[in-house]
């Protein structure tokens, strides 16, 4: 599967992406605000094992984010914790290539994946959490149409300190699309 925009495309992840993921996992500035699984050292074989099963879960949809100019994998995004009973899921994104930070890709990809969640998966609600310290991500989610729901007090632990997480969501009835 491939989802296209003007300068980027989203595609299925594959075990051959392990080298990029390993590189990102070794850079703490890339993984600082990401899922807690990056808090612990991972070998290339750990990442290969994870990637080998990533497309088989009915509870998660993951996409590699690629630049059309060079077909480089620059990050990944998707929806996890999918509940078809509740028609909900949780959005996630990681831009691993730092030279692509600050270019609006987070907002663009958030819109594409959220649209996919509503139009293809039939979800009604998509939520996310972000570190309260990650102001760039919060701004990108706001631009993409997500609304603030609240603060999860001291629910993350980074650099030896507890940090708040911002809870945001968007509903299918509110979605303005791309």
UniProtKB/TrEMBL annotation:
InterPro entries per the UniProt record, alphabetical: Acyl_CoA_acyltransferase (IPR016181), GNAT_dom (IPR000182)
Alphabetized PROSITE patterns for the sequence: GNAT (PS51186)
UniProt lineage: Bacteria, Pseudomonadati, Pseudomonadota, Gammaproteobacteria, Vibrionales
Keyword Metal-binding appears in the UniProt entry: no
EC number: 2.3.-.-
Source superkingdom: Bacteria
N-acetyltransferase domain segment(s): 8-169
Keywords: Acyltransferase, Transferase
Protein name: GNAT family N-acetyltransferase
